[in-house]
UniProtKB/TrEMBL annotation:
This is LysR family transcriptional regulator. Keywords: DNA-binding, Transcription, Transcription regulation. Residues 12-65 form the HTH lysR-type domain. Belongs to the LysR transcriptional regulatory family. The keyword Transcription applies. It comes from Yoonia algicola.
């Protein structure tokens, strides 16, 4: 009997069930709407969790090991029981599990963290984990239940709805340096706002920081110009937006709520939707609802 541990994601176990059913990573990827590498990663994670290989290659197929067969039997029984349970609670507002969200650091600090009281009031028995970073982390890696991102993905199998608009503009302290600027890490140079600033200043940022709040504070301390979401800039009255008659000095972004389509009735996803929709004013307004 294997030593069953707490898996990080039911989605990873669902991947194993799909491979066992269709016999190949490619076919499983097609069925799940993900990439073959994602399927392989999920299988590897589960194999590492239980300390044994789940599949072995057999010609053009992957066949279950004895441990794999035991795992699949347990997972299928669990899936069947879970299906009946979800039907009973589908229309319930109660959520007692754990929700994992991956988002941008300023979305977490400026919007999600201040609204944590709403989460606690609505779901007092639930656990929530928010990983905030400014890198793009794919939810198909099983690292989160929900992602909040400033881009609309076209990844197969990933459902989405728009949460709010987000304008990011160029700012400078009064009397500050308009020839040099503070930006985000080099890995984010492809962002529209980074490209806009580089085009205007005709140079890469002279200082790079790992978050928008760090960018704003560095701009205030050094007098250098910077890029900031307009909603955040409202909290930095010492910074003024740069405007030029012959050039646009802002980019329009959108915040999207992302999750797997196959999990649309999952209580964790429903709880996240309920909470997030209560935080942001409207999909057609900015994040704070106060900017032009």
């Amino acid at each position: 009997m294997m030593n069953i541990k707490k898996f990080k994601s039911w989605g990873q176990l669902q991947t194993v069930l799909t491979v066992a059913e269709v016999g190949s990573y490619r076919a499983a990827a097609h069925a799940l709407g993900v990439t073959s590498s994602t399927v392989a990663r999920h299988v590897d994670i589960i194999s590492q969790e239980i300390g044994h290989p789940i599949f072995l290659p057999a010609g053009n197929r992957w066949e279950l090991t004895d441990i794999g067969k035991e795992l699949v039997a347990i997972a299928e029984a669990t899936q069947s029981s879970l299906g009946f349970m979800l039907k009973d609670i589908e229309n319930s507002d109660d959520f007692f599990g754990e929700l994992q969200i991956n988002t941008l650091s300023f979305i977490n600090s400026d919007f999600l963290a201040p609204a944590m009281n709403l989460w606690r009031e609505k779901f007092p028995q639930a656990q929530i984990v928010i990983e905030a970073n400014d890198e793009t982390t794919a939810i198909e890696r099983g690292e989160a239940d929900v992602a909040l991102r400033l881009s609309r993905p076209d990844t197969p199998g990933v459902a989405r709805f728009k949460v709010a608009n987000c304008k990011i503009a160029l700012y400078t302290p009064e009397g500050g340096d308009q020839d040099a600027w503070v930006g985000l890490p080099q890995s984010l140079d492809n962002l529209p706002e980074m490209q806009l600033a580089r085009q205007l200043f005709r140079a890469f940022p002279i200082i790079r920081m790992d978050s928008y709040h760090a960018v704003a504070n560095t701009s205030k301390a050094t007098g250098l110009s910077c890029i900031l979401p307009t909603c955040m800039a409202r909290t930095y009255p010492d910074l003024r937006q740069l405007r030029f008659d012959d050039m646009q000095t802002h980019v329009d972004r959108e915040l999207w709520f992302l999750f797997y389509e196959t999990r649309k009735n999952d209580p964790a996803i429903k709880a996240a939707k309920c909470w997030i929709k209560g935080i942001f004013p409207s999909p057609n307004k900015c994040l704070c609802g106060k900017c032009d």
